[in-house]
């Protein structure tokens, strides 16, 4: 047993050693597994921390780039909205004034011609032509010795691009290499497009290749390259990691708002101050040592745990430090910052700047929803939330403050992850003043453009090289050039100016202003030859456009068409020396001509004075229109019988004069003879034109033309006395003939009336003068009917009210005719009163009873009896008995009863005598 025991002891010892070794291996394996799990957990936490920090860094840089581009675009838009000096086009001086106001983003101007000539890439020009704001690629700009890109905004007018405004932004400072000792040593960044084209990078600025191709060259697998391409093409912030040659690389990407640009940020694992690879090596070393020495394993494990804990604590401190920094940025930054839940619309956090701006305490603000402060209608606000994944920038959104004031804000939002929740982080800028300024500028611009459109003068502007920059509507109409065709051309190509009289070219006023820097006016008698070849007389002035330092930066010229003014001036000049009715010279011209002709070279100077016979009666009978025709006929008659150098004038009324230089008295008498032998009938009457003429002559320098005029005038008046009575008698005969022709009145009617009037006159023993007046009245009482429409005189039916009013005018017309003729003036008042009634119901004055002259009362009874007993177009004649009955009925109403009784007695006696 002993032997057995002795034999068995080694066996037992070997088993114990084996068990111990197995237990040790199991223990070491458990320790290694535990450490591997711990390492994996630490790696995951560390990678999460580094990734989160890198994402924040990338997003902040992306937001910063967006803000810089947006600010530049807003500056250009605000400048573009400013009132361009004339009709929407820029001058260098105006840009310099804008750049003084805003030196951060210096604005420059490029013309459409420069763009077409190749100053811009074709794709950029096409995008501008569609009205898009373009952000150019980043290039090395030698004049400024740095990398720059441009923000370009088109200037559109009438559906086309007229130019563009742009500002340069330095790219070197947009992607700084960050040194952060708390997390990593440095970070490299680059701007790429979604297809990997490198726009700019911080590690090798001259490199312009393709990021995906370069990554493949560095040994990345296709899957890793595709993963990086995936996070770049994502609309949201995204990140990834990959391992290369034992090193971990962290990659973060965020999309910019412009040009399909993406910001990609890289950091190498060795650059991270807390590296999980180092932990892994320590653990592996400890595991190997634990296998060799179980006793030391516990110590190494303890040391590793302690070391890992310290590193974890250090990482946590770094994370806390980063969080504190971010929190400090959130709390201390002057920009308004909000974090809210897009699902519930609740505000989750707000920095002090937001509380101060909105006027709420933090607690009050966190109790509100976005809809409580955002003034957009609910449907529009909902659309904004739904589109946040596609668009993270909103401009000029109305927000309401606690005070009730409304402010317009620019909002930049991006999603952030808080555990399993997706929140929105917003940076907000107050744009109220900018929008107010923009609106005011737009109003001023609209006012100026409206003024230019409505102004009656043409306006053209040029640059300091004399090239046209704008034409307003009136200028386009007058020149025949539209804006698109004229802009960019030399002034002299569009404005061809010449002297109106000599047709010689006029000095270019624009060039003169550019040379002198002073206001220049066009000379008188300047013509513009427009694009259609028409010549327009114009008046204008050109003034320099000055910069702030007094330099001439262009010219503005205001001009107008003075065709109507010149025509009006000609008319005024013509009327000042001519009679407006006849077109002959007037008294003023003749008086000046008398002075001019009072020279020996014009001797002898003969004068003919003329006076129109019967002008007044013509006006009274036929109206002033016929009188005017009479005067015009006289003018043509005189022109027809005079030489070309004779001066014919109407002195006024019915007087004419002819000044005949180098003409003898005998020749002047021959002219008078020709005039008198020329028969011209008056339009609308049977009268012939009649002139009384007299002549005289100035044969020596000792005599005067004025004396000759007086002598000719005396001779003319002598002739007028000789011709006047015969002409007046001719007028009376003509008027009576016209009356008999136009109406039912006949010469027999006048004779019958005269017969009965004389019979009554003898009965009441009228004087011979009264009998003569009665005879003349019987002949001429209806003379005024010559001016009445024949259709009314011969109408067979009842007259209308208007026709009757016209008919009742003939006593007044007859009165004026008689007044115009001295021999007839004695019966003018009788003619006026021959239709008055005994009861006062007559016309035109409504005289009554014995207020009516006796001869008129006699004529009224006799005229009525003759009218009743003779046929008329509107009725048949009455019998004598019927007519006598009418006289008896109307005696005391229409007729003087005594006169009516006398006429009845005379008629009855005639009938008795006839029956015997």
UniProtKB/TrEMBL annotation:
CDD domains: GGDEF, HDc, PAS. PROSITE patterns: GGDEF, HD_GYP, PAC, PAS. It comes from the Bacteria. Keywords: Membrane, Transmembrane, Transmembrane helix. Residues 522-574 form the PAC domain. Residues 724-916 form the HD-GYP domain. This is PAS domain S-box-containing protein/diguanylate cyclase (GGDEF) domain-containing protein. It comes from Desulforamulus aeronauticus DSM 10349.
